[in-house]
Specification:
The chain is 41% helix and 16% strand. It is an alpha/beta fold. It has a single domain, classed as Alpha/Beta hydrolase fold, catalytic domain (Rossmann fold, 3-Layer(aba) Sandwich), CATH 3.40.50. The model has no long low-confidence stretch (mean pLDDT 94).
Length: 300
Amino acid sequence: MIAQTPPAFARANGIELCYDTFGDPANPPLILIMGLAAQMVVWEEEFLRMLAAKGVWVIRFDNRDIGLSTKLTQARTPSPAEMVFTGLTRIKVRVPYTLRDMAADTVGLMDALGLPVANIAGISMGGMIAQEIAIRFPQRVRTLASMMSSTGDPKLPRATPPATAMLMRKTPTERGAYLDQYVDSWHVLAGDVFPFDPERMRRQGERSYDRGINPPGVARQLMAIVAAGNRTAKLRKLNVPTLVVHGTIDPLVPPAHGAATARAIPGAVLSTYQGMGHTLPREVWGRLTDELARHAVANP
């Protein structure tokens, strides 16, 4: 039986983060960082129990501005036009917060949990935050896993038109409309190679909605991504065991981004998942939990 702690709150980098844990705290800690607009419950509990059973202590949390963590309601919310302009021109603009701030949030959570070092794994935006932790706080990172993420190099391929359109849609606040869009968005991201279970995704959406949605916070997170710049040169200086995971049909962060990440980080291992989009289908859970746990446990 894998132990799961109830949700708790930690003071981190001047805000509060909601988190919970799976498995034995005596095992190597593995902190999972979720992506844009996604609450920690998108890390499905069955997946986390499977991962914890392979010898790691799993910690997941809500990023700032999402779920039950602190909402920065006093911060400015960027407009879609501002985000497009910043993305196209790469002109630096004032942003409510940066990916570096979100990296410091994660390190603050480590401090609150008494973890001098941890294995860090992030997915999509979470992978970018994980990279920033390795860049800014290298002494705190035992291993790095960057999943379906990017270096931020503007020369890399852009998202497909359907994925871009999905990303820019306004989030409904009415429950039924929110759930319909939630299911449709994840179907776009998943692709059609692996079976898609709309009822499962609807239940996930219900849980997220009931925990509380924050569309302005999602816009602020997106602006942090857009304004982050190219990390390639900094990634080349890393000295940390790194696993890069990417699907072959990812419509939001195309596979070239994963390959570029693996090329940039010295010694990184690229693990490609055939037919996987920008989601974690059940069919890959066995292999992925094996790889994540082995990566965390095997590297001293």
